[in-house]
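Data follows
____________
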Amino acid sequence: MSRTGRRAALPTAILLVAALAAAGCDTGGNDPAPTPTSTAPAKPVKLTFGMYGPPDEVGAFQGVVDIFNSLSDDSDVTISSYANHDGLVEALRSGEKIPDVFMASRSDLAWLQEQKLTQPVDEMLDERGVDFGDGYSRDALQAFSADNRLQCMPYGISPMVIYYNKALIDFDRMRARGLDAPDLGTETAPRNPGWSFDQFTAAAEYATRPRRHTRGLYVDPTLRGLSPFIYSGGGTVFDDQADPTSLAFSDSDTQAALERALVLLRNPQLTLTDKQLDRATPLQWFERGRLGMIEGFRSLVPELRQVQGLDFDVMPMPVLDSSATSGDITGLCISADAASAPEAADFLVHALAPDSVGRVVDTGYLAPANLEVALSDRFLQPGRLPDHSSVFNSSVRALELPPLIDSWPDLEAAVAARLRELLTVPVVDLVALTAQIDEESRTVLDPTPASESPSPSP
C-alpha cells in the first residue's frame, strides 16, 4: 500500500475512534460514575536486539542501546550478539527464540519470508516520521521489499571494490613510464576514481615482480568474486532474475565476458599459485605486502589499518563494458512475534537515526545505507586510509543484486570445484565447463526428485 493510501485511511480510523468514544460516554444519565481504581505503573517491555559483528562494532551498538534505554520508560533493550552473519543465521534456523529486532542480510530475506519470521516495517516507520524518500536509495529499499511491503529497513550497503597496495601499484609512476593507468588527480583537484579492465591488467602486471616475489592480483573463484566481471562484460549470472532454475554461465554473452576476463584472472604468472595459497590466504599475502590487489568489502578497512607499514587504497571494480559489482545489503527487521511491535519500532527508529548510525560507522566496518551518514566525514574519515572512501558510495550505483534465494551457501558449494577449475586448470574447454557449472547449479536451484524425473523413451 502506498503512503498516500495509508494516510487516506487515517481519517476513517479517527472517526471510528471518535464514534466509539461517544458511545462509551452515553450513559443515559442514570448510571453511576465508575469507581476510580489504582493501578501499578506498567513495567518496561523487555526487548532483545540480535546483531553480528566484531567486538568494536558490538561495543558501538551497545552505546546505541544504552542511550535508548536511558530515554525510554516503556521498554528495555538488551543485545544478543554473534561474531558473524553465519552465527546469527545458525541461531535463527536452529529454532531459538527470534530476537524482537534483529540484523539480517538480504540473502536471508527469502527464508525469513518463507518461515514468516518478520513483519513489515513500512507503516510503523512511516507513522514515526522516518524519511524513506531522500534518506535512502531506491535500490536499497527495493532490496528488502517483498509482497509490495518493506520487510526490513536497510542499514548497511557494502559493494565489492578492489583494494590495492600503493607501494606495489603507483599510478603516477605507471603513467610516467607510458603505461595505461587511471589519473586520480591531486589532493587539491581530485578526480573520481575509475578504471578500465585494460588499466586493471596493466596494474596487475606492474605489481608482479619476480625478484621481489610479488604477485599482481587474486580473485576468488566464487560466484560473488566472478559476478562483477560477468555483468560488466554484458553477461548474466542467473537464467532468470526473479525465479532462477540454474546459473547462466553457458549463455553466449556470459561466455564472451568470461573469455575476456579470464585472460587475466587465470594468468598463472600474475596471480597466486596453489602452493602460495597452501601457505597463506590471499588476505595474508596482501597484508604482507606481497600481493598487489584483492577484492573486498568495507569491513576489511579496520584490519588493514592495523597492519604496520601497509599503505593501501581502494578502486571500484574495473570496467569491461559497463560498471558492475557484487555485494550485500544488511537490514534491521522486526520479529513477527516481537514482545511489543510498537516498542520494537521505536527502538528501530532510534537505531536508524543518523547519530546512532554514525556511532557504528566510526568503528570503520560499516558502509551505511543512510545517505546522510554515507556522505559525511564520519564515514569518509578524511586523513585515514583508504584515501578514496568515496569509492564505496559511488560503487553502490553499480551493485548487481542476485535473485532472492534461500540456499546461497548450498549453491556456492555445488559449483565451487568447477569455478576453481575455471581459474586454475591450465587448458580449459570453456563451453563444456560452463555447461557443467549450469547443470550442477540445478541441483540447488531446481532440484527434481527422482520420482518426478521423466521416463526414458522406449
Summary: The chain has a mean pLDDT of 89. The chain has two domains: 45-158+328-398, 160-326+403-445.
